[in-house]
C-alpha cells in the first residue's frame, strides 16, 4: 500500500469526520426539531459520503468493500432526503412547536388564506375539501 | 509509515464516538421526532463504523451488517413518521 493512498484515505476520512462531528454537535445544540433535521441530513450527505469514498480509494474499486460502500452510498443518497422530508412533515403535522425565534411559517399562512377563501365561497363546492383534512 | 488497517480502526472508533455523542439527544429529546432524528444519524454513523471495522479487520462478512443497518434505519424512520402523522404515538 503506497503512502499516497494512505494520505488520500486519511484526508477524506478526516473531512467526513469533521462534518459528522459538527452535525452531531448541531443535533445536540439546535433549538427545535426542524433545525435538527437539517443538521442530520447535512451530516449524512457530507459526513458519510467522503468516508465511503475513502473506503473505495483505500480498498480499490473492485474489492468487495468498495462495492458495499457504494451500495451504502447509493442508499444514503436516495433514502435520506425522503426520510428527512417525511420526518419533518410528520413533526409539523403532529404539532411539534417551532423555536420561538422562528420568523416564518408558510404552511400556517397558506392554511389561513385557504380558510378565508373557503369562508367566502361557503361550501358550494364540496369537492374542494383537500385530502388529509378528513378525520380518519 | 502508518498502516492502513490502523487508519481504518481509528476511523471506525471515531465514527462510533460520534454515534455515542448523539445519545444525550436520544435520551432527552423534547419530542419523539427529536429522538428519531438523532437515532437515524447515530445508526448511520454506526453503519460507517461497521464498514471501516470490516475493512480494517479484513472480514467482508461484516459489510452486510452495515447495509442492513442503513436500510432498516431509514425504513424505521419512515414508519415512525407515518405513525406520528396519524397520531398514534
Describe this structure in words.
- Chain A: This is Monovalent cation/H(+) antiporter subunit G.
- Chain A: Residues 111-136 are annotated as: Disordered.
- Chain A: Belongs to the CPA3 antiporters (TC 2.A.63) subunit G family.
- Chain A: It comes from Actinospica acidithermotolerans.
- Chain A: One of its GO terms (molecular function) is sodium:proton antiporter activity.
- The complex is a heterodimer of chains A (136) and B (89).
- The relative contact order of chain A is 0.10.
- By secondary structure, chain A is mainly α.
- Chain A has one domain (3-122).
- The longest helix of chain A has 30 residues, at 64-93.
- Chain A is elongated, with a radius of gyration of 22 Å.
- The N and C termini of chain A lie far apart (61 Å).
- Chain A has helices at 3-29, 33-59, 64-93, 106-121.
- Chain B has 89 residues and is mainly α.
- Chain B has one domain.
- Chain B has four helices and no strands.
- Chain B has helices spanning 4-21, 23-27, 32-57, 63-86.
- At the A-B interface, α1, α2 and α3 of A face α1, α3 and α4 of B.
Oligomer: heterodimer
Largest beta-sheet characterization of chain B = none
Which residues of chain B sit in consecutive blocks of at least 5 with pLDDT less than 50?
none
**Structural class given helices, strands, pairing of chain B?**
mainly alpha
Molecular shape of chain A: elongated
Number of helices of chain B: 4
Distance between the termini of chain B: 54 Å
Q: In terms of per-residue confidence, which ranges of chain A show pLDDT below 50 for 5 or more consecutive residues?
A: none
Amino acid at each position: 500500500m503506497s503512502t499516497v493512498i494512505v494520505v488520500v484515505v486519511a484526508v477524506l476520512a478526516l473531512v467526513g469526520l469533521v462534518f459528522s462531528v459538527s452535525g452531531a454537535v448541531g443535533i445536540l445544540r439546535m433549538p427545535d426539531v426542524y433545525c435538527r433535521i437539517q443538521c442530520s441530513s447535512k451530516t449524512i450527505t457530507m459526513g458519510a459520503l467522503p468516508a465511503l469514498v475513502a473506503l473505495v480509494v483505500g480498498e480499490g474499486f473492485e474489492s468487495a468493500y468498495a462495492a458495499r460502500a457504494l451500495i451504502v452510498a447509493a442508499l444514503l443518497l436516495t433514502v435520506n432526503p425522503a426520510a428527512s422530508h417525511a420526518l419533518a412533515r410528520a413533526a409539523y403535522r403532529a404539532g411539534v412547536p417551532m423555536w420561538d425565534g422562528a420568523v416564518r411559517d408558510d404552511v400556517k399562512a397558506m392554511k389561513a388564506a385557504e380558510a378565508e377563501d373557503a369562508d367566502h365561497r361557503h361550501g358550494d363546492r364540496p369537492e374542494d375539501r383537500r385530502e388529509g383534512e378528513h378525520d380518519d | 509509515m502508518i498502516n492502513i488497517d490502523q487508519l481504518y480502526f481509528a476511523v471506525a472508533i471515531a465514527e462510533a464516538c460520534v454515534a455515542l455523542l448523539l445519545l444525550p439527544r436520544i435520551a432527552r429529546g423534547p419530542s419523539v421526532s427529536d429522538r428519531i432524528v438523532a437515532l437515524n444519524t447515530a445508526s448511520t454513523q454506526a453503519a460507517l463504523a461497521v464498514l471501516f471495522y470490516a475493512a480494517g479487520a479484513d472480514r467482508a462478512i461484516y459489510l452486510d451488517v452495515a447495509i442492513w443497518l442503513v436500510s432498516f434505519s431509514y425504513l424505521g424512520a419512515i414508519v415512525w413518521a407515518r405513525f406520528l402523522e396519524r397520531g398514534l404515538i
